[in-house]
Fold Pimeloyl-ACP methyl ester carboxylesterase.
Amino acid sequence: MRALQVTTSDGTRLHVLDSGGAGPAVLLLHGLAGYAGEWAQVAERLAGACRVVAFDQRGHGSSTRRPADLSRTAHVDDVVAVADALGLERFTLVGQSMGAHTALLAAAAHPARVGRLVLIEGGVGGEGPEATADVIDWFRAWPIPFATVDDAVAHLGGGPAARVWTEGLEETDAGWVPRFDVDVLEAALRPVHERPRWEEWGQITAPTLLITGENGYVPAGELDEMRRRRPDVRHVQVPGAGHDVHLEAPERVAELVRGFVA
C-alpha cells in the first residue's frame, strides 16, 4: 500500500495508506491507540477485490500527535477529508471500537458518501465518565518505555492482538514507546462516552453489518436495541474472538467485509 499525507482544513496531517485499484472502495478506521497498519492482514485479504484505504486517526501513529481539535465532529470530518483527497465519492466505511463510533456518526452525517457501513465491536457510546477513566487508567499503567518488544507483547497480554499492537510502537534510545499521548487519548475518548447516539443510529440509511467477538465488549442489551431500532441490520458474532476481532480473526473479518461489499 502506498503512503501519503492528507492535510485537513484545521491543519491536521493524516497519514494515509492506499492500496489503489479500481475495485469498490473500503475505508478502514482503527480504534483508540491503534494505527492504520494494524489492518494489514484484513487489507491483504481484501486486495484485488477492493480498493482499501486506512489512515492513522488524529493524535495517533504518524498523523499529527497533538491536534487542537479532538471532537467527534473533527474525526468525522477527517473521514470526508481523506475520501475527498483520494477521489472516493462513495465507499464502504469499516470501523473498530472508537473507529466504529466515528464510522456510525459519519454514516449518519454523510449518507450520500457512505454506501455501506460495518461496525466491528462498536456501538452508540454513552457509557459515562467511569468508562473513560477505566480505559485511560489502563494506558497510564503501561511501564513505558518497554525494554524490548517481547516485554511489550507480554505486558499487552500476548497473542496476535498484542503482537500487532506492539508493531505500532516506536523504538527510541530509551526503549519502545507508544506513538500517542495518553492525555490526547483521554480527550478523544471522553466525547464517545458522554452520551449515546441513538438519534444518529436511527438516521443511517446505509446497509449495516455489525461484527462482534464472542468475548467482546459491546453489551448484549445495546446490540439488541440497535437491532430493534433497525431490524434490517445484520449481526455476526465471531466465536472465540474478543474486542480486537480484526486482529484475532482477520480472515473471518475480511470474508465478511468482502461478502458485504460484493
The domain at 2-126+191-261 is CATH 3.40.50.1820 (Rossmann fold). The first strand starts at residue 2 and ends at 7. The first helix runs from residue 40 to 46.
